[in-house]
């Protein structure tokens, strides 16, 4: 209750007495203010008021250096330590409330809208929007264009000649002959006169006809010529008829191409040994039996990787493409360039008549002239983009030209 100070009591001795509380300004005695405490229960009786003794005059205390005043509540808190249930003081940095992300977004949107109404915002904001649009377009183009623009696929695949070689000639003579087959009526060989072409309503020639229309393959009109050339080259007569017939059709439909049967025969040899690969045999109607199907183009063993393009309708494989028939067409290419050379109403890649004519049309695409070395090599590499393959076709076509004497 109050502080104690040194009070002088006389000159020679001094005693220490406790200070008494000062009297109220009005001179009356009253209770001393006390800190609030928990209210007493209603049942507890009120304490009687105590009369405080009157203050007695005391002498002035001696001068003493001021001591820092400590609040009773703070001192008690430091001695007692933190108590449960009492609010703890924290620093200002931790007490700062951070608005939730939604409020931040709303605030940013309002600030942006307010800025856009200013003169500087009206000029800058459209430019920023345009810049973002250009960046998004460029990003989309970088992702989509490479996926859409792919390297052109070859027309056919030959799994036996996959290793490329260097030094494919781009100049010099083309292999084999470039003229028409030595059909009877042109060279004096015995047989029927030179066949002529008839056209369908669409304007596409369908094949030679000797005299009146007779059942069977149109290429049978070249039977006598094919028999003699077959004996010299070792190519089956059925295959020879198909190659010669394709040259005749292209000579009248694409005159500037000047494709020789020797090139078609060389491709037929490299691709399927003239329709005899996988123990197949060319039937008299030109169809290979059983069907000649290449290995799945799954990217294994040096093969190309080409996913299914025909839903397995032609190659019976719904996952990967397979090369088809004597000329080993890829299904997607056959759907584009397939031909019906025997007038049976079906474009059959396993029919060597249809396949040889389709191969000739593919080689002549783009206005190529097969008597020009650059065009010849470009056509073969477009058929199968492997340099060793092109060199093998060149060598075989040149061999057939020498053996046949054409």
Automatic annotation (TrEMBL):
Q: Which InterPro entries match?
A: Lysozyme-like_dom_sf, MltB-like, SLT_2
Provide an example Pfam family for this protein: SLT_2
Question: Which keywords has UniProt assigned to this entry?
Answer: Membrane, Transmembrane, Transmembrane helix
Cite a single GO BP annotation.
Answer: peptidoglycan catabolic process
The answer to whether the entry has keyword ATP-binding is no
- What domain of life is recorded for the organism? Bacteria
Under which name does UniProt file this protein?
A: Membrane-bound lytic murein transglycosylase B
Provenance organism? Micromonospora chersina
